[in-house]
Design a protein that fits this description.
Helix content is 20%, strand content 34%. It is α+β, with helices and mostly antiparallel strands and 128 residues long. The longest helix has 11 residues. The protein is globular. It starts with 7 loop residues before the first strand and ends with a helix.
Length: 128
């Protein structure tokens, strides 16, 4: 299945969906497949300011632990609280219910150097 083209993608497999001055961030379907069964997600506190390209959390699975990196800068406005008790939601719905955080005060221009869906899919093809 092709990656949705309504969001942008980083080389570290996070996606961002810009909505005005806000943004939703998650990991790609490819990333959740590579990780396997997700067992824990460490998320930042609401109000924390994130810097593009810097670590904002950790995602753990039965296979590995991976850092999460902010694809854009902004302030954490909401975390996906359901992931604290059911992190496997990311495995089941990486594009929708498995979002990780929502940011506010985002500069949409931050996403300018990220990949669109077709470019991300082409990037994945070169990784395999």
């Amino acid at each position: 299945m092709p990656s949705p083209n309504d969001r942008k993608y980083s080389r570290t497999h996070e996606w961002v969906k810009i909505e005005g001055a806000g943004a939703i961030i998650g990991i790609s379907d490819h990333a959740q497949e590579a990780l396997g069964d997700i067992t824990f997600v460490e998320m930042p506190a609401v109000g924390k300011k994130l810097t593009k390209g810097k670590e904002f959390g950790v995602i753990e699975s039965v296979k590995a632990a991976s850092d999460l990196y902010a694809p854009v800068s902004g302030e954490v406005g909401e975390i996906n609280g359901s992931l604290t008790t059911s992190p496997e939601v990311i495995n089941q719905s990486a594009w929708d219910k498995g979002w990780i955080i929502k940011l506010q005060n985002v500069n949409p221009a931050d996403a300018g150097d990220l990949m669109d869906g077709p470019a991300y899919d082409a990037f994945l093809a070169t990784e395999e």
